[in-house]
Write a structure and sequence with these properties.
Helices cover about 25% and strands about 35% of the residues. By secondary structure, the chain is α+β, with helices and mostly antiparallel strands. The two termini are about 35 Å apart. The structure holds adenosine-5'-triphosphate. Adenosine-5'-triphosphate binds next to strand 2 and helix 1.
Length: about 350
């Protein structure tokens, strides 16, 4: 098994810089998720690892071997795409066996390996069915079995769950993770869905505009996004523009933290709805805020709150246990605190500036 190392990978499509000096090390046996909005370069990066695109600059190594100029068929990779890409005229068994047969492996070896893979991806019962006779989730498991058949060093997955409905998506996500860990294979997984990336990956690389903003373990990324973009993209945070006073930024009576370097008059404070504490009653400290809306989310209820600072309205979301939120009425005034340990503030950037 091998890791993957990208150094200074740059890829242009005409004037579009799809990848801008991207350097990433994926460790052996690690699952790295590439997360970012549409057009940020995730698929291009995966295609460079697969050999489907040639970088204009930089190198791609698998293990200790520089594969930058090696054709796809000679790279030790397996690929799974959103569109399954199964052969419609072959059964599940034949689809999984295909990569072994094109490599002219002995028939008994193919049978043993395919039986093993059918069990791994839980398709033994469907082995003799054709792709049109199985569900989307089963088709994707078949595609995964086929990708793993030749024992690749690295598994590349491009939005493998996008075509599936929500329930199947959650189940198959966990299934892919179980299989990746059981096989112990290094994997790169492209997604634009933050909860999917967090759930499945050892580390997440947040991408923006052809660059890597941050690479971190899901819990670290969730707790401490390093850049304004990461904070915006991960964790459904409140993003509130607040005045900087005497080197501090905050909401009077609610929280204060040191103002970020480079802030000028105002700063953008990020905090998650679960770090907002909501108390009933008019007396006591905390920002007074009116409950504009309650959204029931199951175990928690999200409150849309509007307070003010110096005549400026401040709108924030706060989450509460649903059992407690039942006691609060829309239109009621509550008191709001924010845990300062979980607030991050960034200077407000002018158009064209990048967050740091
Ligand atoms: P999505 O989630 O929508 O698939 P992505 O993050 O995977 O997006 P890429 O497909 O890697 O993004 O595209 C990165 C940039 O490169 C985009 O601006 C895209 O329009 C451009 N691009 C990608 N492929 C080509 C191509 N073959 N020709 C020209 N431009 C391309």
């Amino acid at each position: 098994m091998s890791g993957v190392s990208l150094v200074g990978v740059t890829k242009m499509y005409g004037h579009v810089k799809a990848l801008d000096h991207v350097s990433i090390d994926v460790c052996e046996g690690e699952l790295l998720a590439l997360l970012g909005p549409s057009g940020c370069g995730k698929t291009t990066l995966l295609r460079c690892v697969a050999g489907l695109e040639l970088p204009d600059k930089g190198t791609v190594e698998i293990g200790t071997i520089d594969v930058t100029a090696v054709p796809t068929r000679d790279r030790p990779i397996g690929m799974v795409f959103q569109s399954y890409a199964l052969f419609p005229n072959m059964t599940v068994r034949q689809n999984i066996a295909f990569p072994l047969e094109v490599r002219h492996r002995p028939r008994t070896e193919v049978k043993t390996r395919v039986d093993e893979l059918l069990e791994l991806v839980n398709l033994t019962e469907q082995a003799n069915r054709y792709p049109k006779q199985i569900s989307g989730g089963q088709a994707q498991r078949c595609a995964l079995g086929r990708a793993l058949a030749p024992n690749p060093e690295v598994l590349l997955l491009d939005e493998p769950l996008s075509a599936l409905d929500a329930l199947v998506r959650g189940r198959l996500r966990d299934e892919i993770r179980r299989i990746q860990q059981r096989v112990g294979i290094t994997a790169i997984y492209v997604t634009h869905d933050q909860s999917e990336a967090m759930a499945i990956a050892d580390r997440v690389a947040v991408m923006n505009d052809g660059r890597v903003e941050q690479i971190a373990a899901p819990a670290d990324l969730y707790d401490l996004p390093a850049t304004q973009f990461s904070a915006t993209f991960v964790g459904s945070r409140n993003a509130v523009e607040l005045a900087v006073r005497e080197g501090r930024v905050g909401i009077p009576g609610s929280f204060h933290i040191a103002a970020p370097e480079g802030s000028n008059g105002h700063a953008l404070a990020f905090f998650r709805p679960e770090d907002v504490q909501i108390s009933r009653g008019q007396t006591g400290d905390g920002m007074r805020a009116r409950v504009e809306l309650k959204i029931f989310l199951g175990p928690t209820t999200r409150l849309h709150l509007v307070g003010e600072d110096d005549g400026r309205p401040i709108a924030i979301f706060g989450d509460m246990a649903s059992r407690q939120a039942r006691l609060i009425e829309e239109g009621e005034t509550v008191r709001v605190h924010v845990d300062p340990d979980h607030v991050q503030a960034f200077p407000i950037l002018k158009a064209g500036q990048r967050g740091s």
